[in-house]
Amino acid sequence: MTLDVMKSVEIIEVMENYIARKRPPIEIRDKLDINYRLDNQSIILFQIRPIWNDQSNYQTIDYAKATFDKKNALWKLYWMRANQKWNIYKPQPTVRFVQQFLEIVDTDTYGCFNG
User: Fold this and answer.
1) Is residue 62 part of a domain?
2) Is there a domain that residue 113 lies in?
């Protein structure tokens, strides 16, 4: 089930503001950029980088995910391991608000999201 329309509008507003604040300087965005996507009940943060052996093509690298648990009205937090599998973020597996998810990603105390 996807997020309802009103919740999606709120999420998009929060995420657009976050991305606008966190994007790298315009001069290096062809080498590194960030963005997000909504995928059903999830918000996924990802990097955009040129492919190492073909600088004319780009790849996206997922690094953080929050999935809404409608039953409990909580966001479950995940980080992407090197094996390309999502793992629950054990230091704080859930939050109530999207903004809290973004604060945890920014703080990254355990080096899970941004190494």
Assistant:
1) yes
2) no
d(Cα 20, Cα 112) in Å, to the nearest integer? Answer: 22
The answer to whether 73 and 89 are in contact (CB under 8 A) is: no
Q: Is residue 112 part of a domain?
A: no
Nearest alpha carbon to residue 60 among 38, 45, 79, 43: 45
Domain-embedded: residue 115: no
pLDDT greater than 60 at residue 1? no
Q: What angle do CA 60, 1, 86 make, to 5 degrees?
A: 40
Q: Dump pLDDT digits (tens) for 29-66.
A: 999 999 999 999 999 999 999 999 998 999 999 999 99
Residue 69 DSSP code: E
Total structural domains within the chain: 1
Report field, pTM of the whole predicted structure over 0.85: yes
5-34 burial code (b ≥16 CB/10 A, e <16): eeeeeebeebbeebeeeeeeeeeeeeeebb
Range of the domain at 50: 5-107
How large a percentage of the chain has pLDDT more than 70? 94
